[in-house]
């Protein structure tokens, strides 16, 4: 990559840019020459209410940093309005960072349909809505960079976050499809799982952790992902406190049973189903799975000498 990662002439749309990570993104991209669309509904952590103050303050900070900003106060569920703000103000959109989020933590027994739908709508549908609205512009100009925000709650699970975890894992699945569909148009999409001090995490972390996990330690990695020189596509990255790492699927040894077989036959092979010892099998798509099955079938069809 270039030693000096500039974004002159680029338009960056950042959702949830009124505080925390979103604000940190906006200020850093502004310093690097980008034009910023500051989107924030201005609601509470639970998604209640709205206000223009947070977005207005960040937009002013962007201007004080020597760049230009357009402000949007719409919910991410109305992604077309957010992207329209970028087009009306700057005539283009180059980068979107789907960062907006809320929490409605509750155990499965107590979770309501409203708790579920609200989280899915903001996180998963919101990510889709903003991306969908920008996609035609990315395709027409032959350029686009997308960073979607997943979470360890989706990858690993977390008590009381069935709604949030489902949305966040869905976001990475969405990212992987975008990466495949957009590659020929020079549209790159990646997911990050950030752990950062914010109003959403202030009740979870100690003061020492809050100091370590400042948003500013996430931002440089996202800047790299968004630059035109970055070739990463479809990746999933954990990012926290200055530590950056890529995650990937690994396939176990597995068991292949030919002909007719029963549940009891499967049970006998359960150790193989779960065995990862000494294996370096890292699938990247369903085609790898089909290839395995065909290979096993062919091997079993060969006559024994």
Automatic annotation (TrEMBL):
This entry's Gene Ontology molecular function terms read: oxidoreductase activity
Q: Which InterPro entries match?
A: KR_dom (IPR057326), NAD(P)-bd_dom_sf (IPR036291), Peroxisomal_Beta-Oxidation (IPR051687), Sc_DH/Rdtase_CS (IPR020904), SDR_fam (IPR002347)
Q: Which family does it belong to?
A: Belongs to the short-chain dehydrogenases/reductases (SDR) family.
One of its Pfam families is adh_short
Question: Would the keyword Cytoplasm turn up in this protein's UniProt record?
Answer: no
- The organism is Stentor coeruleus
Keyword annotations for this protein?
Answer: Fatty acid metabolism, Lipid metabolism, Oxidoreductase, Peroxisome
Q: Which GO terms describe its cellular component?
A: peroxisome
PROSITE patterns under this entry? ADH_SHORT
Superkingdom of this entry's organism?
A: Eukaryota
Named in its record, the pathway it takes part in is:
Lipid metabolism; fatty acid beta-oxidation
Official protein name in the record = Ketoreductase domain-containing protein
